[in-house]
Structures are given as structure tokens and as C-alpha cells.
Design goal:
The protein has one domain: Histone deacetylase domain (Arginase, Chain A, 3-Layer(aba) Sandwich), CATH 3.40.800.20. Helices cover about 35% and strands about 15% of the residues. The strands form 2 sheets. It has an 8-stranded parallel sheet with strand order 2-1-5-10-9-6-7-8, sandwiched between helices. Strand 1, helix 1 and strand 2 form a beta-alpha-beta unit.
Length: about 325
């Protein structure tokens, strides 16, 4: 069973009226999971999933990706009552607290799967703000801190792993994650995403550089692509990672490729997310002792988001065998 890392503080990251990355996203997911008190402590919830309250990422954890001065910029903005890093990316008085907890959830989820006795543990970080667009010294695309990249760096530096896979199926390319590890042979970053599209990176010719050449794989999808191309892209990613043999699999789990999403422009269904998750679980079982962590990124139609995450978690809890659609 996947452990879910969640804290009500994530609801206090205020992006303003009409912004697609809003607290209701997490409420919709919890509703889909049968949790009727999004503001309750995780330990107070009942149901089939075990919720764990994360602790904030340490500055050492964050500094593996983001320079301390950038964190101070975020803190200063929050202390002034908030502001905008760019036209899409808001900072409110509680945003830094939420961002540090989101990064802490990703680190804790990744750390929990490392010990041998917990090698089959799986985890889902139900967090906001999302992270995969955040560059080392620049937040963008709704993202303040790069949660998945901070978690990957923690696995490398704190836990001594040397082959960590990051699979990103958000409809937008994770430019910040790619940048963080573009020349690092220890991280294989694989992304499927709409192309051309925001943020303008993620071409098929972007494959890494220096010692990291060959450990970046971008699989662009055309506007309107549905479940068939989406699943085929994940099959190509799994084939590449089968050869690379990761010791842990991290997922940047964005659900904005769903056909109902107001931003994405693809036509994926909830059952497609279940299918690709089973493929990634199978990959983790084959090469990584079952070590797999999923970290929430995008997804902006509330009903579609709840349905898709439910399918994702059901697959994450399975054995990776074929089943369902």
C-alpha cells in the first residue's frame, strides 16, 4: 500500500482568484479518496490509505538544488505579503511554508523506500505547489521549489544511490528537473509531454551533455494525442530504463494530459494513467526492489484530477501486472 504524504498547510498556498493551481485541487483528490476533511491532520483520517504528515525540507536538502539566496528571495516575498515571480507563479504569506513542506514530503517519501526492510514500500506525495518547472535560482510555471529534483538529489547524496530514474508524464516538460541533471549520469530523466508547448524545452534532440549524455530522454507528443501515443511513449521510456537498471524510480505525476484539462490540450483518460503507472511499478519491481515514489505535479480539471489520481494510486498499490484498461 502506498503511503500518502500530506499536510493541510498545502491548502494555504494562495495563488489568487481564478488561478488554475488552486487549493481545491487537493480537496478534489481527497474527495476521490473518500477523505471529507482536507483540513484535518493526516493521522485523523480513516480509510484504506495511510497518511503521514511530512516535515519541512532542511536547508541542506534544498541547497542541493537551490542556492540559499533564492530561498531568501522567496521568504522576503512571503514576508511582504506575497507577490509574483512571473505572471503565472504566485507567492503568498504561507507559500514558503507550503513549498518547504512539499519538498520535505518528497524527500521523506524517497528516504522511506531506501532501507532494505522497506524496499517494497511505495509512496505518493500529495503536495502543492508543484515543482518540476522550478530552476535552481528561478521559480516559474506555478513552481517554487523543485520537489522531485530535491528528492532525487537526496537519494544520491544522502543515501548513496547512483542510478535514479525520474519519469515525468505531466503535459508540460519539466525543464527545471532536466536542467538540474542534464550533465549528471546518475539521474536518467525521461519525459513525455505536449510539443511545442510551455515552457518551450523538451525537444527530442535534448539528450544530456558531458557525462550525462544519453541520460535524458524526451518524447514529445502532438496536440490532441490520446491514450495510444501516451502509452507508447511510456513503453519507450520503460524499454530505455530496462537497459539502464535504476535503483529507484521517481514519478513527476502531472495529470493535465487528461482530455478534460483546461490547459493541457491532449486527450488522455484516467485509465491511461493507471496503465502507465502499472508499467512503472513493474519497472521498479524488476530493477529497483520495488522502490517507487510519485510526486504530484499538474492537473487542473477537478473531476478529472480526482479520477486520474485514484486510478494512479490503485495501480501504484498493485504488483505491476497487466489489468484493467
Amino acid at each position: 500500500m502506498a503511503v500518502i504524504y500530506y499536510d493541510p498547510v498545502f491548502l494555504e498556498h494562495d495563488t489568487g482568484r481564478g488561478h488554475p493551481e488552486r487549493p481545491e485541487r487537493l480537496v478534489a483528490i481527497l474527495d476521490a479518496l473518500g477523505i471529507d476533511r482536507a483540513d484535518a491532520l493526516p493521522e485523523a483520517t480513516d480509510g484504506p490509505h495511510r497518511f503521514v504528515a511530512p516535515t519541512a525540507a532542511t536547508l541542506d536538502d534544498v541547497a542541493r538544488l537551490h542556492p540559499p539566496r533564492y530561498v531568501e528571495v522567496l521568504r522576503d516575498a512571503a514576508a511582504r505579503g506575497g507577490g509574483w515571480l512571473d505572471p503565472d507563479t504566485a507567492v503568498s504569506p504561507r507559500s514558503v511554508d507550503a513549498a518547504l513542506l512539499a519538498a520535505g514530503a518528497a524527500v521523506a517519501a524517497a528516504s522511506a523506500i531506501v532501507p532494505d526492510e522497506d524496499a517494497r514500500r511505495r509512496a505518493f506525495a500529495l503536495v502543492r505547489p508543484p515543482g518540476h518547472h522550478a530552476r535552481p535560482a528561478h521559480g516559474m510555471g506555478f513552481c517554487l521549489l523543485n520537489n522531485v529534483a530535491i528528492a532525487a538529489a537526496s537519494l544520491l547524496e544522502r543515501h548513496g544511490l547512483d542510478r535514479v530514474a525520474v519519469v515525468d508524464f505531466d503535459v508540460h516538460h519539466g525543464n527545471g528537473t532536466q536542467e538540474a541533471f542534464y550533465d549528471d549520469p546518475r539521474v536518467f530523466y525521461a519525459s513525455l509531454h505536449r510539443w511545442p508547448f510551455y515552457p518551450g524545452t523538451g525537444g527530442a534532440d535534448e539528450t544530456g551533455e558531458g557525462e550525462g549524455l544519453g541520460t535524458t530522454l524526451n518524447l514529445p507528443l502532438h496536440e490532441g494525442a490520446a491514450g495510444g501515443p501516451f502509452r507508447a511513449a511510456v513503453d519507450r521510456i520503460v524499454d530505455a530504463l530496462d537497459r539502464w537498471r535504476p535503483q529507484a524510480v521517481l514519478i513527476s505525476a502531472g495529470f493535465d494530459a487528461h482530455r478534460a484539462d483546461p490547459i493541457g490540450g491532449l486527450a488522455v483518460e484516467a485509465e491511461d494513467y493507471g496503465h502507465v503507472t502499472r508499467r512503472l511499478v513493474q519497472l521498479a519491481e524488476t530493477h529497483a526492489g520495488g522502490r517507487i515514489v510519485s510526486i504530484l505535479e499538474g492537473g487542473y480539471d477537478l473531476d478529472a484530477l480526482g479520477e486520474s489520481v485514484l486510478a494512479h494510486l490503485e495501480a501504484l498499490d498493485g504488483d505491476g501486472s497487466a489489468g484493467g484498461a
